[in-house]
Amino acid sequence: MTARDRTAAGAAAGARPVRVLLADDQPMLRSGLRMALSGADGLSVVGEAGDGVEAVDLARRLLPDVVVMDVRLPRLDGLGATRAITASGLPVRVLILTAFDTDEHVLAAVGAGAAGYLCKDVPPAELVSAIRVVAGGGSVVAPLILARLLVRLAEVLPAPSTEPVAAVLDVLTEREREVFLHVAKGHSNAEIARALTVSETTVKTHVGHMLTKLGLRDRVQAVVFAYETGLIHPGA
């Protein structure tokens, strides 16, 4: 079967691969990432960028589903490139993959519009999973980083809303409330599925409905909302 035949067969089966753009100033690292991702089912590396300006240009020309972006890049850093991509309104999402895991870097990345933040020591399988989550509209933050941020977030947020939590969540079904509580605690779809003994596909559907009904953009906003309303507290 030729490459064209395989592409046609995949299209006929509705199996469109997740298209990925790599943005890192280290050629060897990009090569390693390309090898790791190209070996994963359903992923296709469509381009590489060695600096932030090139990353923005390729994102506009290639329209990948996900840009895997380092923070430290020449000409335009990863945060600036992320802001440029998200502000352009392109159907392109950014997953930060970097050696920097300080709270300041993470918060700046989220503020710039990144949908995920992972460290470069993440296992390949977890990176592949994160890319799929981000491509599907979700958000991913390394668990250890998220745990730190939740504590910090609780310290700086205003006092919880005086409106009863039950009233705030009245728009949700009982199952959607359960899912929201798990999301608010930073649990992944897989963890929620195990806890509720349902499929990950079902969890993903509930998460989408929950975010839409509450007017939230992503899982990070859901965590903030949970703290603001007093639904969860540090150490909960």
TrEMBL record:
SUPFAM superfamilies: CheY-like. The modification 4-aspartylphosphate is found at residue 70. InterPro entries: CheY-like_superfamily, NreC/VraR/RcsB-like_REC, Sig_transdc_resp-reg_receiver, Tscrpt_reg_LuxR_C, WalR-like. GO terms for molecular function: DNA binding. The keyword DNA repair does not apply. Keywords: DNA-binding, Phosphoprotein, Transcription, Transcription regulation. GO terms for biological process: phosphorelay signal transduction system; regulation of DNA-templated transcription. This is Two component LuxR family transcriptional regulator.
